[in-house]
Amino acid sequence: MQWGSWAEFWAMGGYGLYVWGSFAVTLLCMAGEMVSLISTERAARKHDGEKA
Amino acid sequence: MAAINWFKFSSPHSFYPLAGRMMPWFLAASLLLSIVGLYVAFFVAPTDFQQGESYRIIFIHVPAAWMSMFIYLVMAGWAGAGLVFNTRLSGMMARALAPTGAMFTFLALWTGALWGKPTWGTWWVWDARLTSELILLFLYIGFLSLTAAIEDERRADRAGAVLALVGVVNIPIIYFSVVWWNTLHQGASVSLKSAPKMATTMLIGMLLMALAFWMYSIAAALLRVRSIIREREPRAAAEV
To answer: What interface predicted TM-score (ipTM) does this complex get?
Structure first.
């Protein structure tokens, strides 16, 4: 663990904006896509349940 | 020995439940790999002596770029199979992959720009690697809009397949752009032929994240192909 403190971790050696800007957008896109896919899946399974 | 029926799961009806059963495993694998990968990326891999901490963007930039090219090839493969075998599911698989491929292409460009700003001093430059990756994004968007614009799904699959196959030439161009042209973008640090030019922990973190993104893409494609099957062939989607 080479980060002295959480503050240092978020600062990311002064590159915080770039590093966290990259990771945040990546997480947002991937999580967003997966959540929408899974909710479609769940809606279908619930519908199948009612129909069956 | 009984002959293997290679086409056992090539019908939407038989593949639908299989995709449903496989998907959770791939999703779990991607979550596990990314947790371990992120831990290595931030808590094990050391500070880079030149770039300091900004290099940590590599842990998502390279996996996203690799997936943007890899998904395109797999998508074009399915599209080609659909044309050759005239199998409905192949076209569905190509359509299921396209949005995720487009997303990773955007992410490769986005993370690349955020890495370029502190390192090169600019968000964008008309460099061979960046430009060919941008063309890849246009190809994905072209595939998505072309297939969405055609009413008849089977015709849309065929039109999309032609576009996807034509666009395949762009993938080697992206990959070798750093070799063929004098580019600002650095050359390949990872190759199967030579020893890695990266510190071991950095390489391990990057490969873990690449595997995580790969598992994620499979899970996303399996989920999306199920929703495509439900849309196109509701009877096939009735749980067996």
So the answer is: 0.91
| Site from A27, A37, A51 to mutate, B interface, most B CB atoms within 10 angstroms | A37
Report pLDDT for B186. 87
Contact across the interface for B54 and A34, Cβ inside 8 Å? no
Compute the C-alpha angle B125/B126/B130, nearest 5°.
85
Interchain pair B60, A48: CB under 8 A: no
- Extents of the domains making up chain B: 18-238
Tell me if residue B46 falls in helix, strand or coil.
Answer: coil
Residue B2 has pLDDT above 80, yes or no: no
User: What's the pLDDT tens digit per position in A4-38?
Assistant: 999 999 999 999 999 999 999 999 999 999 999 99
Distances (CA, A) of B46 to A3, B3, B34: 10, 53, 18
If you measure CA to CA, which chain B residue comes closest to A47? Answer: B238
- Domain boundaries defined on chain A: 6-51
CB pair distance less than 8 Å for A18 and B115: yes
What is the model's pTM?
0.94
Residues 6+ apart with CB under 8 A from B19: B222, B223, B225, B226
Question: Which pLDDT tens digit goes with each residue over B138-178?
Answer: 999 999 999 999 999 999 999 999 999 999 999 999 999 99
A chain contacts of residue B46, beta-carbon cutoff 8 Å? 2
Instruction: Find the closest chain A residue to B102 by CA distance.
Output: A29
